[in-house]
Specification:
Layout (H helix, E strand, L loop, with lengths): L2 H21 L2 E9 L3 E8 H4 L3 H16 L5 E4 L2
Parallel strand pairs: 2-3
Antiparallel strand pairs: 1-2
Length: about 80
């Protein structure tokens, strides 16, 4: 998978999860993909102060991204 295809797949994954975040007053944006393995995102809105945002990041966002781009090893939130 090329770097451009990888970015498109990660964006598709974020588009899939975004409505759930937005329904709670939050959002997410893609900041970067490093070494085709590490995705950096930024949680926004209500997601910033949410007490379960790390669980959302790991079980929701990371799992969905890995479904679209299996080579991704980790997703981290940059505040």
């Amino acid at each position: 998978m090329s770097t451009e295809e990888l970015k498109l797949n990660v964006e598709k994954a974020l588009d899939e999860i975004r409505p759930f975040l937005q329904s709670d007053g939050g959002d997410i944006s893609l900041l970067s993909i490093e070494d085709d393995k590490l995705v950096k995102v930024q949680l926004q809105g209500a997601c910033i102060s949410c007490s379960v945002n790390q669980m959302t990041l790991k079980s929701g966002v990371e799992m969905t991204i890995k479904k679209y781009a299996p080579q991704i090893e980790q997703v981290i939130n940059v505040e």
